[in-house]
Amino acid sequence: MKLKAKRRLITYLNILDQPIRFSPFLFSRNFLLWALLGIIGGLISGIYWIVLEALTHGLEIFTSWLVIPTMAIAGFAAGIIIHFFGDPGEIDLIVNNIRFNKGKLDPKNNPSMILSSLLCVASGGSLGPEAPLVQVTGSTGSWFAKVLRLKGEDFRSMTIAGMASGFTALFGAPLGGSLFALEILHHKHAAEYYQAIIPAFVSSCFSYIIFALIIHLGLGPIWDLPTYEMQDKFDFAYAVLFAVAATLCGWIFIFCTKKLKSVFQNFPLPIYIKTFIGGLALGVIAFYFPLTRYFGHHQINELLLNDLTLNILFAILAFKILAIAITVTSGWRGGFIIPLFFVGATLGLIIHRIFPFVDPALAIISCMVSINACVTRTPMSTTILLATLTGFTYFIPILFASLTGYFLAPRIPFIGSQLQRTKES
Q: What DSSP string describes 287-344?
């Protein structure tokens, strides 16, 4: 023991004798690794988006009654892919692996996720590409960490940075995407994983640049809300009231999803039969209400620009909630964040039609942010994301609405893996 201690002392003294290397910057090799991961994430996201757009344009020609067999066949094909390639899981599995599996996302699920989600999203399912992108880019981060032989929180941080690059590529908001990748893990753990924020932010910035170059993405808002100027001191109170109404819609969505999930679970059908039934139901809804088809990226602007009657808006609201619930529970693959934004925008328009004195932009943005905060429990990142996506410059009312949706959310989270566990890896 004395010999070992002596050797350690000698080694320590030798280190002290070395010349001091002074660097005035925080820049290090890790920055290059995070940047490289972001570039890879941007490339993956860009290629995925190009294929998705091409496939969507190919399938959107099937309109009128043809939308019903088109979505049924697409659902059946997606189910066959999942049956033979394996179940890629949903957002619950991603959150669960980050929190309880040392941050490891298995790349073996990627072929099934990519192929099935492309069919589901392109044919008109009410789920978006955010979950597939997060799975693929997050697992790329895990692979990156494995190659670099990272351990513990460094491994988890690299996976989260990969996830953030996927979020950012889709939403075009590096800061919001970075925070979302942390906050979706549940608010109590966002702080715990806060050391991943810089890796996530660096990766997001580079991912956004590459994605923007690939698809020629503009740097402005993607949804054209009416211009808003704060003139009434009661606007904060209005934002909270609108948020309460949107949170109620969030509860209805959660209730519908849980009921439909129990229905599908009570019938032990093969996955391709479930996805076929889901596609059939979605096709019928899309036939009667075409705006409910697809996940809402382009449809939100159509909703805002078309002068729809109040009855039509109520019908779209109800059937869009039902369509998202069917898509989630019947085995279709995708994410529900942008579809929930569509629901919120519809509710905001309804409120404005009923109460014309209400500012339409304030009603719409308040409903969009609160319903998503209620379902996903991500009040901070959702606020930043929507401010970026809509160009809504009055940040505080959005935050009030977001916090309202969050604190009025059900105690049991919609994303089951956000629940606390006594032991975590």
A: HH-GGGSS-STTHHHHHHHS---HHHHHHHHHHHHHHHHHHHHTT--SBSHHHHHHHH
Q: How far apart are CA 92 and CA 412, in angstroms?
A: 14
Bridge-partner residues for 284, per DSSP?
none
- Distance between CA atoms of residues 335 and 121, nearest Å: 9
pTM, to two decimals? 0.86
pLDDT tens-digit readout, 193-205: 567 788 888 898 9
pLDDT at position 419: 60
Q: Which residues of 398-417 are buried (b: 16+ CB within 10 A; e: fewer)?
A: bbbbbbbbbebbeeebbbeb
Cβ partners under 8 Å of residue 164, min gap 6: 177, 178, 180, 181, 200, 201, 203, 204, 207
CATH class (in words) of the domain with range 33-215: mainly alpha
Domain ranges of the chain: 33-215, 235-418
Average pLDDT over residues 405-410: 90
Please give the average per-residue pLDDT across 126-147, as a whole number: 85
For residues 273 and 80, what is the distance between their CA atoms, to the nearest angstrom?
9
Q: Is the pLDDT of residue 132 over 50?
A: yes
Q: 200, 41 in Cβ contact below 8 A?
A: no
Q: Which CATH architecture has domain 235-418?
A: Orthogonal Bundle (1.10)
